[in-house]
Amino acid sequence: MKILVCISNVPDTTAKISFTDNDTKFNKTGVQFIIGPYDDYALARAVELKEQHGGTVTVLNVGESESDPQLRKALAIGADDAIRVNTEPTDSYFVAAQIAHIASQNSYDLILMGRESIDFNSGVVHGLVGEMLGIASYSPVMKLDITGNEAKFAREIDGGKEHLSAALPLVLGCQEPIAEWKIPNMRGIMTARTKSLAVVEPVSVDDSTVLEKYALPAPKGSCRMIPAEEAEQLIALLKTEAKVL
Amino acid sequence: MHTETAENQALIEQTVRDFAERHIRPHIRQWDETQFFPMDIFHQLGELGLLGVLVPVAYGGSGLGYRAYVAAIIELSKVDPSIGLSMAAHNSLCTNHILMFGDEDQKNTYLPRLASGEWIGAWGLTEPNTGSDAGNMRTVAVRQGDHWVLNGSKNFITHGKSGHVAVVIARTGEPGDKHGATAFIVERGTAGFSAGKKEDKLGMRASETAEMIFQDCVLPDSQRLGKVGEGFIQSLKILDGGRISIAALSIGTALGAYEAALAYAKERKQFGQSISRFQGIAFKLADMYTDIEASRLLTEHAADLKDSGQKVSLASSVAKLHASETAVRVANEAVQIFGGYGFTKDYPVEKFYRDSKLCTIGEGTSEIQRLVISREILRD
């Protein structure tokens, strides 16, 4: 089984977010980057499936060289080889087009990624990739097993779960608890150095969106604690001050 | 020589940090309060490759150098110094003694088990009456044909009770004679080898410290580690490297306390502003940072010397002395910055304060470090 795992290179969840160039560029200074947490689940499940069924796991990122540490980590966790499409990921359509291009050159049985990245959170890349390749896509997938040419999986729906089966190939957007995040071991880290990390140039895609400006949410106001026995005061404040009642 | 790239080093640090945050941090307080030695964590550390960091891949280890080893101890100790201490003792003392002085059979028998975390190792030099004066140890090994008979006791031994195997130094010659001691490998379950009291300690409480007792403990000569009479000299060489690991433990402990104090100083408001804006607090933080950075450079220097096979006694003693004294000072100032809250168990610094004190005592007190350093610099 050939599995492609697409990972995004995103700011750590505790990073302080700021912008430069008149709020048109994300300020990367001092920001620690990580593998997108949802992508990390997809990667963990891919490595488990490889251990069960054999095959290969290729990890793919659309990004510049700053993504290499994350690709190396994926290799240390158990991916066999890595591909980086050497370009700044501009929007979901652009990223999906790059992924679809790589995927069309190799016949993968499964293309896994997170349900969404945690920077721009658009959550549409899996759907776009499926459309571009003409194969089915599902998200968010929280359980996944493979038997022969068939995938059995569970998808989160409003208020419950939907259990599905579908023939491979598939594109799946993943989330917990599909697998537990994996921590690489020392030997994995050392072997990762000997695995291939191919850097390929992007295909050209027409700009579909133009970024005008970023804006941060208003800072949180101070918090006022009201003792439980003074619930009336809370209701009064919600009416008069917060004006939500 | 090992050539870990900066990227690899960063990945090793991140890996250990992720593991510590996920599997150690949630339990710190409970382990501390109940003096619980989390054996499961050590099996997991073994799976990660952190219990045979310096052991070559051929013997089931990770085959990394001291730089990576130092980084791993720092990251563990930042979260819980007692786990860093146990990890360091397992690697630097027991495992390293067998790696450096064991024969092929001994290495093949013990190193894969120790490196994988299937077995936890202990190392016994100190005795109730001989700490710094280890040359006068009373535990004796007497040769009887193809066997040795051990009698005596070792105390303050990390994993003295739960360790599956111990390297033990016993006297085989005259007291005080540098060539009067020999090292042995003793497996748990060997007749005549038992565990004594587990110590109830000020700090490092999740790291087990216990007594090991030998009463007519009979060992075949194949359990002898290296040549007869070389045990004490071997131990000094083991401790030369071990000091690098205690320096790393000290840095991790200091960083844990410093980072907590730094965050608190920015958050805590008095007189209408963050206390970090008061010079009295800001200068404390500056001194803490400076001392930690100096300790880190000294320790990395010692690690580099060790990795390149150079003599490391002076450099490792200097690093251990500076880093351990720094850990105590930084943890003390961290409690001061936290004020009343620092004195409570609701905040992490009181534990760093208690844990830090081990650093100036274990694997050679600060006084012994000064002895080693002064001898080296005064040598004609």
Automatic annotation (TrEMBL), chain A:
Residues 23-212 form the Electron transfer flavoprotein alpha/beta-subunit N-terminal domain. One of its GO terms (molecular function) is electron transfer activity. It comes from the Bacteria. InterPro entries: ETF_a/b_N (IPR014730), ETF_b (IPR012255), ETF_beta_N (IPR033948), Rossmann-like_a/b/a_fold (IPR014729). The keyword Transport applies. CDD domains: ETF_beta. One of its GO terms (cellular component) is cytosol. Coiled coil: none annotated. Gene3D superfamilies: HUPs. Keywords: Electron transport, Transport. Belongs to the ETF beta-subunit/FixA family. This is Electron transfer flavoprotein subunit beta. It comes from Arundinibacter roseus. The lineage of its organism: Bacteria, Pseudomonadati, Bacteroidota, Cytophagia, Cytophagales.
TrEMBL record, chain B:
Residues 7-118 form the Acyl-CoA dehydrogenase/oxidase N-terminal domain. It holds the Pfam family Acyl-CoA_dh_N. Residues 123-217 form the Acyl-CoA oxidase/dehydrogenase middle domain. SUPFAM superfamilies: Acyl-CoA dehydrogenase C-terminal domain-like, Acyl-CoA dehydrogenase NM domain-like. Keywords: FAD, Flavoprotein, Oxidoreductase. The keyword S-adenosyl-L-methionine does not apply. InterPro entries: Acyl-CoA_DH_CS, Acyl-CoA_Oxase/DH_mid-dom, Acyl-CoA_Oxase/DH_mid-dom_sf, AcylCo_DH-like_C, AcylCo_DH/oxidase_C, AcylCoA_DH/ox_N, AcylCoA_DH/ox_N_sf, AcylCoA_DH/oxidase_NM_dom_sf. Its cofactor is FAD. It comes from the Bacteria. It is an enzyme of class 1 (oxidoreductase). Residues 229-377 form the Acyl-CoA dehydrogenase/oxidase C-terminal domain. Gene3D superfamilies: Acyl-CoA dehydrogenase/oxidase, N-terminal domain, Butyryl-CoA Dehydrogenase, subunit A, domain 2, Butyryl-CoA Dehydrogenase, subunit A, domain 3. One of its GO terms (molecular function) is flavin adenine dinucleotide binding. Its EC number is 1.3.8.10. The keyword Oxidoreductase applies. Belongs to the acyl-CoA dehydrogenase family. This is Cyclohex-1-ene-1-carbonyl-CoA dehydrogenase.
